[in-house]
Design goal:
By secondary structure, this protein is mainly β. It has one helix and nine strands, in the order αβββββββββ. The N and C termini lie far apart (about 80 Å). The relative contact order is 0.22.
């Protein structure tokens, strides 16, 4: 009888241990209502240089701040899926951000770049861990795909 209750107690401790680490050992994304998001993209101008192409474009969305960065990927994915394969050949520079729903950027790409590019925006992620209290851990950024419909097709030479 004592052995049976001892096993049950061990199982209960194991269950609580697993439940505790599932609840507190994972990452979570900052509230969606504060995350930047793109709804549309409009090309304003394209200028050709000797070795690069400069594309001025305007995006509309929500929570677009002057600090909002954009990254590009060649990987097609669903909206809000994690972006991981960034193309470092693309350089984005903010031109103007007059309101949180509209911004204008300059995209510089090598002339040799071809194909469709997709856009990714950052979201703040906090790491929850029972082993390391939040006071010792900073926030970090995870990049999220803006969907297969928000694209720019790089023209062939």
């Amino acid at each position: 009888m004592a052995r049976s209750s001892s096993r049950q107690a061990e199982r209960l401790k194991y269950f609580l241990f697993v439940l505790f680490f599932q609840s507190f050992g994972s990452a979570y994304v900052a509230k969606e209502e504060f995350a930047p998001e793109l709804y549309s993209l409009e090309i304003k101008s394209v200028k050709e240089n000797a070795d690069s192409r400069q594309v001025t474009f305007e995006v509309r969305g929500r929570n677009l701040q002057s600090t909002t960065q954009i990254k590009a990927t060649k990987a097609k994915a669903e909206k809000d899926s994690v972006c991981e394969d960034f193309d470092t050949n693309f350089n984005f520079s903010l031109i103007e951000n007059s309101e949180s729903t509209k911004a204008q950027y300059l995209l510089t790409v090598p002339k040799s770049a071809k194909g469709v590019i997709y856009f990714c925006l950052p979201r703040q992620v906090r790491e929850n861990s029972a082993l390391v209290p939040p006071i010792f851990k900073g926030d970090f950024i995870r990049w999220y795909h803006q969907g297969p419909d928000l694209t720019y097709n790089l023209p062939s030479e």
